Amino acid sequence: MRLIGSRIKNLKNLYNQIMKKIVKILSVVFVVGVFSCTQNIQPRLIENDSFAGIVDGKEARLFTLQNENGVATQITNYGGRVVNLWVPDKNGKFDDIVLGHESIEKYINSNEIYFGALIGRYGNRIDKGLFYLNDTVYQLEKNDNGKNNLHGGLKGFHNVVWDVEQPDAQTLVLNYISRDMEEGFPGKFEVEVIYKLTDENELRIEYAASVDKPSPVNLTHHSFFNLNGAGSGTINDHILQINADNYTPVDAELIPTGEILTVKGTPMDFTEPKPIGKHLSENFSQLELGKGYDHNWVLNQAGEGLTFAAKVIEPESGRTLEVYTNEPGIQFYGGNFLDGSDTGKEGKVYDHRSAFCLETQHFPDSPNQPGFPSVILNPGEEYKSVCVYKFGVEE
């Protein structure tokens, strides 16, 4: 009996050991499975080879910036374009929140030519591509429906290959020299743009420039954002706030009339957060002229330094975007001319109003509007502009 009892005890011990090993194996399998799922929601970066090529005799390349929180962006020196921007939602899931393409060739052949690009020498429109400066008439390319100059012309900064260096894993420095009378603008213009991805989840863009002849200057950045993920539907349910009591109304060609009007009591009032699409169907002339929102807001600047300009909240993902700048204005564009003709990264179609832009800037057509802040840069002066896109989450 003692022998039988001993054998039974040994069998029980063996059974317990086997069960412990099974539990341990299952635990490992579970952890690996969870880890694999987590890996699937991390940034999916594009291979550098997709952006290797020669454009106008210069080498185009792709660069990756990533911070300690896993936020990542890839930028090409072709047009200084932000190709992708991966940020987490309230559950830690990463999505790419900017529209764009996966190769140089696709950018060159894109119907929307400004995806993610640096814009210059003059961002936004100049009426009839014409301005007077020091008793001289300057005629620029009319690349906006053959009527006005838009975003610097056909070969604006969005189409050049910038000289580039990456001093560290979170910084990219771009340089370009625009020759005298390039695209019709006077003066040799030297510009440096620094992209910095901070550990505070900010994409900071700093512009510095000088010129050897007086010239109008207005640099900006043209990322198309969808905080629910690029190509994931309308942005009309995003909640927008703009820190501006006034805006500059436009005519039928989207050229400012020269007036500065209050937003109060109009669909242009975003002083309190509200859905982007709340008033789009209303009978309001400025929305009809712009086919939606495509206007400059006059920011409520708070002295020197950076001013809070705008905030966007995407309710489903909880992602937020705050914009800060030292510029006097911001152009809010609601993706009115996106029409589904561009298929972007991962085969996603970019439909009507599936992205928005917030472009920090001086006002459109300022060279022809004496009542607007001056955009003339003179020799011996240094142009300085800062735009900060800060990303976060809210429950």
Please name the defining characteristics of this protein.
five-stranded antiparallel sheet; Beta-galactosidase, Chain A, domain 5; 3 helices; mainly beta; 395 residues; nine-stranded antiparallel sheet; 28 strands
Query: Termini separation (Å)?
Result: 66 Å
Rg, alpha carbons? 26 Å
User: Which percent band covers the strand fraction?
Assistant: 25-35%
Number of helices: 3
Helical percentage:
10-25%
Name the strands of the widest sheet in spatial order.
12-13-14-15-28-24-23-18-21
Mean pLDDT over the residues: 92
Number of strands: 28
Could you please say which CATH topology of the largest domain applies here? Beta-galactosidase, Chain A, domain 5
Find the structural class using helix and strand composition.
Answer: mainly beta
CATH-scheme architecture of the largest domain: Distorted Sandwich
Largest sheet: 9 strands, antiparallel
CATH uppermost class of the largest domain? Mainly Beta
Number of domains: 2
Unreliable spans are: 1-5, 22-40
Layout of secondary structure:
Elements: H1 2-40, E1 53-55, E2 58-60, E3 62-66, E4 72-76, E5 81-88, E6 94-96, H2 104-108, E7 117-119, E8 125-126, E9 130-133, E10 136-139, E11 149-150, E12 163-168, E13 171-178, E14 189-197, E15 202-211, E16 215-216, E17 220-222, E18 239-242, E19 244-248, E20 261-262, E21 274-275, H3 285-290, E22 294-299, E23 307-313, E24 319-325, E25 329-333, E26 357-361, E27 376-377, E28 383-393
